[in-house]
Amino acid sequence: MRLNALASLSRLSRRSLLGLAAALTLPVLAQAQTTPIKFQLDWRFEGPSAFFLVPAAKGYFKAEKLDVTIDAGNGSGNAVNRVASGAYDMGFADLAALMEFQANNPTAPNKPVAVMMVYNNTPAAVFALKKSGIKTPADLSGKKLGAPVFDAGRRAFPIFQKANNVGKVEWVSMDPTLRETMLAKGDLDAITGFYFTSLLNLEARGVKASDVTVMPFPQFGVKLYGNAIIVGEEFLKKHPEEVKAFLRAFTKGAKDVITDPKGAIASVKARDGIINADLEERRLKLAIESSVATPDAKAEGFGDLNKPRLALMASQVADAFQTKSRINPDAIWNGSYLPSAAERAIFKK
């Protein structure tokens, strides 16, 4: 009797130990099934970064078994370089910067590729104070323009120049924080910058929007694409399903951001507590209006692009940036990882 009891106790103990082992193993297996992704933004945690911070805050990435880390950036060129180096798996960068990298580094082992368009129209614009007398692109001829050397609008200005028959201009370089200040003080005749960045920065320096002449590139014959989600070549080969999952979660979050920009800013405030929520809400709304939910984006479909338009941009960027080799648009873009058209139908009708 005692032996039977001991045997039963032994079996019970073994089952308990096996159950305990299984319970301890489950979190490890769950963790092993989660893919970490390091994501590099193009700029600081400002309004537009909500497009990435919202799906992270709402658990959309986690639901796709992705552990996404999002870091602030300091320019599209650096975002491209960091993804190419392998320091980051994915990123957000201006398509022209990606084109330049590929054309100047044809033998790079981990060239990034764009997999989803976000800013269907470039946010680049020229800004001048109305009191300067500058009203049209032609008025820029012979004038002093300012921007950081890496500014997307400055880099692409030769395309704007050619499209609008602008004569020679003089360029002044400065730190990004000084650009709008120098225009407001009259040290410059005009500047280039992102529409939703420079306009609000000028207002913060006491310049009314009604006193500013704004020339958005897309409205003056320059139909360049803006920022896209990019992926390192090696990561794309090893984790194609995870890239698809990332884009699905991002698309779900993007719909939320467009539907409720005010609510979306909470995710940005959570990452950078010192931001001005009202200001960043305005910035986000301007970004949506000028670059995301545009007529071109609605015609091409959110996240997608038009191949002939991409080919034209590749040729224009090669000329304007004086790249070492011509740009192959087919090497820049891969739309096969996009969510379905139905999933990407996020614009209000």
TrEMBL record:
Signal peptide segment: 1-32
PANTHER family reported for this sequence: 4-AMINO-5-HYDROXYMETHYL-2-METHYLPYRIMIDINE PHOSPHATE SYNTHASE THI11-RELATED
Assigned protein family: Belongs to the NMT1/THI5 family.
Known role: Responsible for the formation of the pyrimidine heterocycle in the thiamine biosynthesis pathway. Catalyzes the formation of hydroxymethylpyrimidine phosphate (HMP-P) from histidine and pyridoxal phosphate (PLP). The protein uses PLP and the active site histidine to form HMP-P, generating an inactive enzyme. The enzyme can only undergo a single turnover, which suggests it is a suicide enzyme.
GO molecular function: metal ion binding; transferase activity
Alphabetical keyword list: Iron, Metal-binding, Pyridoxal phosphate, Signal, Thiamine biosynthesis, Transferase
Organism: Ideonella dechloratans
Catalytic activity: N(6)-(pyridoxal phosphate)-L-lysyl-[4-amino-5-hydroxymethyl-2-methylpyrimidine phosphate synthase] + L-histidyl-[4-amino-5-hydroxymethyl-2-methylpyrimidine phosphate synthase] + 2 Fe(3+) + 4 H2O = L-lysyl-[4-amino-5-hydroxymethyl-2-methylpyrimidine phosphate synthase] + (2S)-2-amino-5-hydroxy-4-oxopentanoyl-[4-amino-5-hydroxymethyl-2-methylpyrimidine phosphate synthase] + 4-amino-2-methyl-5-(phosphooxymethyl)pyrimidine + 3-oxopropanoate + 2 Fe(2+) + 2 H(+)
GO BP terms: thiamine biosynthetic process
Domain SsuA/THI5-like: 50-264
Record flagged with keyword Lipid biosynthesis: no
UniProt-recorded name of the protein: Thiamine pyrimidine synthase
Keyword Iron: yes
Protein's pathway: Cofactor biosynthesis; thiamine diphosphate biosynthesis
Subunit: Homodimer.
